[in-house]
Amino acid sequence: MSLHADNIIETKGALILGAGAAGLFTALKLSPYPALVLADTHPGISGSSARAQGGIAASVGEGDSWQAHAADTVAAGAGLCDPAIAALVAREASARIEDLVRFGAPFDRRKDGSLAVNREAAHSAPRIVHVSGDSAGAAVMRALTDSALATPSITLLEGFHAIELAVEDGRVAGLFARYGAGEFARLVLFRAQEVILATGGLGALYTVTTNPVETRGEGLGMAARAGAVIADPEFVQFHPTAIAIGVSPAPLATEALRGQGATLIDENGRRFMPAIHAAAELGPRDVVARAIHRQIAAGHKVFLDCRDAVGAKFAGAFPTVYAACREAGIDPATQPIPVAPAAHYHMGGIATDTLGRSSLEGLRAVGECAATGLHGANRLASNSLLEALVFGARLADDMRARGTLRASRGTLPTPERFRALPAPQVLRDAMSRLVGLERSAEGLNEALRIISQIERAGAHEPTLLNMTATAKLVAAGALARRESRGSHFRTDYPQTDPSGGRTFLTLAQAERMIAEPTTTTTTRSLA
Ligand SMILES: Cc1cc2nc3c(=O)[nH]c(=O)nc-3n(C[C@H](O)[C@H](O)[C@H](O)COP(=O)(O)OP(=O)(O)OC[C@H]3O[C@@H](n4cnc5c(N)ncnc54)[C@H](O)[C@@H]3O)c2cc1C
User: How far is the CA of 258 from the centre of ligand 1 (A)?
Assistant: First the structure.
């Protein structure tokens, strides 16, 4: 698609798209070198970052070690983590937490002043640094935003919705972004030596999600449309117990409630988990999510019953969940909470190396939109913010060391506030029904057909094409993976194939695979 910009801004240096934890932290680590951070929605509260609850994993507790953290990460990834990346991330975690403390993150502390750490599922030691129990994301984002606003080398621009990468002479040379609406809409070309995508995940391509509406996989789609290699797109993690009260994003009923003894019941008060897994409600996240999904698909309603396990202590012990329930008119101390699985986190993304470089010259990626090899087929809880910090710092060090950054030039327009619209419902329905917790060749082929129809109907609209490119890669990756592993479950291939490796796929390869279904699988083992 050839686009004509109304305005051209020369950003000689770091151009960061996305103002979540990944974008802002990278900009701060780049300082004193200039960074222009663009986002469609409001920095500090946009994206998934401000919604993170549990906290950030780092082996800062007594008796813990980065080796144990790396081993837990690899175990959670169901055979597809890159062990060298897991070791690198676990080793650098505590230094990144120190950075956050310097930027003002008010982590909870013990009486002796040391960082307080919580334990989460599948971690062999308490190692989650947190803020006021379940408010880590909001507090960290407040600190990062305040620091960024106080840093002269950082320019934060809200209200720009990026639609396409600019590619010149085979390298990424900037991006096109819209601002304004209707007849006042304008297109700006931000030219830059390197573009850093920090655009988050893709949960909002699904009907029920914990992610905000702006998290529609657009950065991944833009990179894929420019030819970048995408890794592991089929791995989408679903949270088993989002509160099903018809609001999007769906609030979470934290796993800690099941840890306290809350049970999953249907509309008749019948528990179904004991028949499915020895650990019942405390089984692995993907097992519990699939069991709930099957109940709902069979026409049941599912509830989290906290009445006996938590009861009157609810408001004090789980204030965030309590507030969400009360807003929906539910008293969780005396009433079961309606729940459903929700698209929560994308393990896949733009394939990057240890310095955040993608397969395209001039394009880097960081945070949830990148795939570094850390998560494999399933993310270990609280490793995602950490991944953003570790690779944001590495990428910034590399760019600063190469010293190629210069100040911005051009007159910046002042856009109006942007309101992200939900992805088309027909796309969200197809993703939820056919590319969700349970997949089959038949369903995935149907999904690909629906995605292509949506794409053809909206071929003039780059925002839609970014979403459909991402959706297509998730479905094509799932079709190519003829096995079940981690978050990916095929009803027609329920076993794990011991020879299964990671997926590396370009959009062109995915499209060839769809056109010629006999093309061999694109998964490959880690060397
Ligand atoms: C409810 C919830 C709880 C979680 N809890 C935890 C936790 O406890 N610990 C943990 O480690 N992880 C947690 N996660 C995951 C974690 O929050 C995310 O993986 C992480 O915040 C992603 O950060 P990011 O900066 O990559 O993306 P985001 O924070 O999602 O930011 C993306 C940015 O890109 C912008 N953007 C996107 N597309 C465009 C476009 N086309 N044009 C312009 N701007 C664009 C958005 O507006 C936003 O500013 C949780 C996630 C959710 C949803």
Answer: 25
